[in-house]
Design goal:
Structural class of chain B: alpha/beta
CATH class of chain B: Alpha Beta
Helix content of chain A: 10-25%
Pfam families (chain B): ThiF
InterPro entries (chain B): ThiF/MoeB/HesA, ThiF_NAD_FAD-bd, Ubiquitin-activating_enz
Number of strands of chain B: 8
Structural class of chain A: alpha+beta
Distance between the termini of chain A: 36 Å
CATH superfamily of chain A: Beta-grasp domain
Largest interface: A-B, 22 and 44 residues
CATH class of chain A: Alpha Beta
Domain THIF-type NAD/FAD binding fold (chain B): 12-247
CATH superfamily of chain B: NAD(P)-binding Rossmann-like Domain
Number of helices of chain A: 2
Largest sheet of chain B: 8 strands, mixed
Oligomer: heterodimer
Distance between the termini of chain B: 42 Å
Number of helices of chain B: 11
Organism (chain B): Candidatus Hakubella thermalkaliphila
CATH topology of chain A: Ubiquitin-like (UB roll)
Strand content of chain A: 25-35%
CATH topology of chain B: Rossmann fold
CATH architecture of chain B: 3-Layer(aba) Sandwich
Keywords (chain B): ATP-binding, Nucleotide-binding, Nucleotidyltransferase, Transferase
Strand order of the largest sheet of chain B: 3-2-1-4-5-6-7-8
Strand content of chain B: 15-25%
Order of helices and strands of chain B: HHHEHEHEHEHEEHHHEEH
CATH architecture of chain A: Roll
């Protein structure tokens, strides 16, 4: 399984409205595919980590990956 | 050490004893001019620690007055300060702590009209503001004026901190080129925030500011610190300058300041 964690307010604006998701691995599945499926705007869901490292949108996800998505926050 | 009074030598003795600081470093701190954007959740601990450390001049920009609902986290203000301008109660608290510090209050919001003039007099900007329009305005202004921002931001149980040093590391727009669409991001007022959270992020900002002033250690340039209070997780990820960045990139398209509030109707998130 691929574990996805959405930070800050992203769960509230995502399709499944959940903070943590488990997704079955598929051939050719990218970080961007997950964000699009979750209907997250790409200009906000820009900082993505997989297994603790920052990755680009075309990163190919594989079984066991842990993906985390961080949006900008503005509170002070 | 001749420049310091006996009391000052005692006051800063735990700094001076550090080989990384010493009398020379303490003098650097005294000669530094730091601008705080916001005297709220982040600005309170950041400003208070920087004042305690002996920063020479501390500018404080805030347009708000102290509200009862601020006091669960904004530790520069007291119950008796409710209704007073935040810059005034912040100044009072800081002078009580350390009369060596020159406090310059700016009881105003940052706008494209005043930002360049305000930041001009300072070496370093500590950003603890509470809304996206000001964050973008300040970022663009600091890239144009070549000022380093020690950035912090919070949301509910999560915080972020980094240092934006123009043309050396990335800027805010390298990370997030445009503000989120209006209405997408709930404010702290709507979402709530656990009061200790800004204390942690604001303290990290004060530490990063002092490291930059002292030129010691590895500041958070090109690195984004992410804190998840519920999980008690700190993560650091590398962030790079984007050559296509609209403001600090090789061919910038933003060459003038933008007041986002005016044209996109983004309601500032008050924290």
């Amino acid at each position: 399984m691929i574990e996805v964690k959405l930070y800050a307010y992203l769960p509230n604006i995502s399709k499944s409205r959940r903070r943590e998701l488990k997704i079955s691995p598929e051939e050719g599945l990218t970080v961007q595919d997950i964000l699009v499926r979750e209907q997250l705007p790409l200009q906000i869901a820009r900082v993505v980590m997989v297994n603790g490292r920052r990755v680009e949108m075309d990163y190919l996800l594989k079984d066991g990956d842990e993906m985390a998505v961080f949006p900008p926050v503005a509170g002070g | 050490m001749a420049d310091f009074t006996e009391d000052q030598i005692i006051r800063y003795s735990r700094h001076i004893v550090l080989p990384q600081v010493g009398g020379k470093g303490q003098k650097k701190i005294r000669e530094s001019k730091v601008l705080l954007i916001g005297a709220g959740g982040l600005g309170s601990p950041a400003g208070y620690y920087l004042a305690a450390a002996g920063v020479g001049r501390l500018g404080i920009v805030d347009q708000d007055e102290v509200d009862l609902s601020n006091l669960q986290r904004q530790i520069l203000h007291r119950t008796a300060d409710i209704g007073r301008p935040k810059t005034h109660s912040a100044r009072d608290r800081i002078i009580e702590l350390n009369p060596d510090v020159e406090v310059v209050p700016y009881q105003t919001s940052l706008t494209s009209d005043n930002v360049m003039e305000i930041i001009e007099d300072y070496d370093l900007v500590v950003n603890g503001c509470d809304n996206f329009p000001t964050r973008y305005l300040l970022n663009d202004a600091c890239v144009l004026a070549d000022k380093t921002i020690v950035d912090g931001s919070i949301f509910v149980f999560e915080g972020q901190a980094t240092v934006f040093k123009p043309h050396v590391g990335p800027c805010y727009r390298c990370l997030y080129p445009e503000p989120p669409p209006p209405g997408m991001v709930p404010s702290c007022q709507e979402a709530g925030v656990l009061g200790v959270l800004p204390g942690i992020i604001g303290s990290i900002q004060a530490m990063e500011a002092l490291k930059l002033i002292l030129e010691i250690g590895e500041p958070l340039i090109g690195r984004l610190l992410l804190y998840d209070a519920l999980a008690t997780e700190f993560r650091i990820l590398k962030i790079r300058r984007d050559p296509d960045c609209p403001v600090c990139g090789d061919n910038p398209t933003i060459t003038e300041l933008i007041d986002y509030e005016e044209f996109c109707g983004l309601r500032p998130a008050r924290c």
